[in-house]
Write a structure and sequence with these properties.
Elements lengths: L2 H12 L5 H12 L4 H8 L3 H22 L1 H22 L5 H20 L1
Helix pairs in contact: 1-2, 1-4, 2-4, 3-4, 5-6
């Protein structure tokens, strides 16, 4: 998985577990794509302090994922739901009316779950 996507997912799942200061700095880096120099200027701290904070937050969030596996479970569930969705669309091509209605309902539920993820 691309590092930026991974950092965003980790922040989405575990960001609330960071301190307010960590969330501010890491959030600016991850969500707003600010550089260490820009963050340092905004918060009145050194670039090195920003780099250290980003590394520390990366480690904290990665450690949470290593213990809880919420991001991995989310990605697995999302892939399974996509697969169900694909199968249901394929079954819609069959001719049995009741099966079509049942599959339409399955597809609707899959769409709702995917939107919620």
């Amino acid at each position: 998985m691309e590092r930026i996507v991974e950092q965003n997912l980790l922040y989405d799942f575990y960001g609330e577990l960071l301190t307010a200061h960590q969330k501010e700095i890491y959030g600016e880096h991850i969500l707003n794509d600010m550089t260490a120099t820009e963050i340092a200027a905004e918060f009145g701290i050194t670039r090195q302090a920003v780099h250290d904070m980003i590394r520390r937050c990366d480690k904290i969030l990665t450690d949470y994922e290593a213990r809880l596996h919420l991001v991995a479970k989310f990605l697995t569930a999302k892939e399974k739901i996509k697969e169900i969705h694909t199968l249901s669309r394929r079954l819609l091509r069959e001719d049995k009316e009741q099966m079509k209605e049942d599959i339409r309902q399955i597809e609707s539920v899959c769409n709702q779950v995917l939107e919620d993820l």
